[in-house]
Every structure is written in structure tokens, then in C-alpha cells.
Automatic annotation (TrEMBL):
The keyword Signal applies. Residues 1-21 form the signal peptide. This is Uncharacterized protein. Keywords: Membrane, Signal, Transmembrane, Transmembrane helix.
Length: 242
């Protein structure tokens, strides 16, 4: 139970940190300009110092740490949209699939409190949102590292759909790496040591279940995030042609 509570608090703290970074990047812009019918926040050419003394590069790339702590975000609403999709829609699709196909539940789809007093309707809502928060954090970190919130990453009239898809692919690869690393850390905390296949039947079952969860998480996040991103890109291109 304490491990679940710690995970909840950690995910909440990480989301608050990333939200603060998004807000910081959004308010840095000196003016707003409209692309088609989509309003994008555009930063001035002037460099803005951050709390760590780093400056934004002109192309928005900077160092990996600069991309996270001082990101370039041309659409302030897009990160929040990504959070909603990654945290709610992706895990919900997985829960619906498990329910319809009567497949085994993921290891994370359990009530937070193992007590019969808490087994009420909607008891699985909290673990779904908590797990979704972790997936959202993974995607946000990947999107920041891939510069997926810059104008050319969402506007196909600048670099084409190839650039849009490439940024999505880069963000997804980094997010998948973060998810795999987090899963390994979770197994390390659960067993108290490094475990691998072949040690025992219990360890083998837990490791295989964890990897099945990782594969399902990546698959359903792709189903949720990629269509939304492509729809946004198509909408921007259509509005600019009108």
C-alpha cells in the first residue's frame, strides 16, 4: 500500500513540475499570432533567462536539460491535450479492451487499498488514473526531448507530414524508454534486488506480466495519441489553405 501511495505522490509531483515548465514556456512569449484558425504562442527573438541561468536557443533545441526546463512550446494548449489523452483515453481504451475480451487484467488494474471496505463501484478508476499519470509523464518527457511542441512538429505546411510523423516517432521512442526504465525500477523496488528470467517461477511470472503491460501500454498510447496529433496537423493545414 505504501508503495502505491508513494507512486501516486511521485506522479503528482512530476506532473506539477512539468505543468509549471509548460506555463513558464507559455508566458515567455511576447505576442500571439494566428495560423489559420489555430492560435499559437510565439516567443520573441530575445533570449529569456531561466531560473538555472540557461538561455533559450534560437531554434529551440538547446541541451537535453534545456528542452525540459525551458521548452519551446508554440501551442500552449497542446501539452494539456496530450496529458488528457495519455492519462485518460489511452488507459481507458485498454480497460475497455480487457473488459470486452475478458482478458487477464493488467498488474496495475487493482484497487489502491486491498481492503473489502474499499471494494465499491469505481474502485478501479483511481488505479487507472494513477497509471495513466505515469504514462502521461513518460509521453511529456518524450515530447519535450523530441521538440514535439514546436510549430514545425504540428504544422505540416512547414516541414511536411514527414516532420510531424518523425517528431511523433522520436517522442514515442523516448517515452517508451522511460516507461521501460520505470518498469525495471518498479521491479527492483518490489523484489528488493535485481531479478531476471530463470531465477524462480514467481519472478518469471512477474517479469513476463510486466513486459506484457509495457507492450500493451505502448500499443494503446499509440492508438490514442497518434490519431489526435495527425488530426491536429491536418486541421492546421486545412485552415491555412482556406
Amino acid at each position: 500500500m505504501y508503495r502505491k501511495l508513494f507512486r501516486c505522490l511521485f506522479m503528482l509531483a512530476l506532473q506539477l513540475f512539468l505543468a509549471n515548465a509548460f506555463n513558464h514556456a507559455a508566458v515567455q512569449g511576447g505576442y500571439l499570432r494566428t495560423i489559420g484558425r489555430t492560435t499559437l504562442a510565439t516567443a520573441k527573438t530575445k533570449h529569456f533567462p531561466t531560473t538555472l541561468g540557461m538561455a533559450n536557443s534560437k531554434d529551440g533545441s538547446g541541451t537535453p536539460l534545456d528542452r525540459v526546463l525551458s521548452p519551446k512550446i508554440d501551442d500552449p494548449a497542446l501539452p494539456y491535450s496530450d496529458v488528457c489523452v495519455a492519462q485518460i483515453i489511452g488507459p481507458a481504451m485498454q480497460v475497455f479492451y480487457v473488459t470486452l475480451t475478458r482478458s487477464p487484467n493488467p498488474t496495475w488494474l487493482k484497487p489502491l487499498f486491498d481492503d473489502t471496505l474499499w471494494q465499491y463501484k469505481g474502485a478501479l478508476l483511481a488505479p487507472t488514473l494513477v497509471h495513466g499519470a505515469g504514462l502521461a509523464c513518460c509521453w511529456m518527457l518524450g515530447a519535450l526531448m523530441a521538440r514535439a511542441y514546436e510549430e514545425e512538429a504540428i504544422d505540416p505546411t512547414i516541414g511536411g507530414y514527414g516532420t510531424v510523423l518523425w517528431r511523433i516517432f522520436q517522442a514515442g521512442c523516448f517515452a517508451s524508454g522511460v516507461l521501460i526504465l520505470s518498469t525495471q525500477v518498479d521491479l527492483l523496488v518490489e523484489f528488493g534486488r535485481y531479478v531476471q528470467l530463470g531465477e524462480s517461477a514467481e519472478a518469471d511470472a512477474r517479469i513476463l506480466a510486466a513486459w506484457v503491460d509495457v507492450i500493451n501500454d505502448i500499443f494503446f498510447e499509440i492508438l490514442a495519441l497518434v490519431p489526435i496529433r495527425l488530426y491536429l496537423a491536418a486541421s492546421i493545414a486545412k485552415n491555412k489553405m482556406m
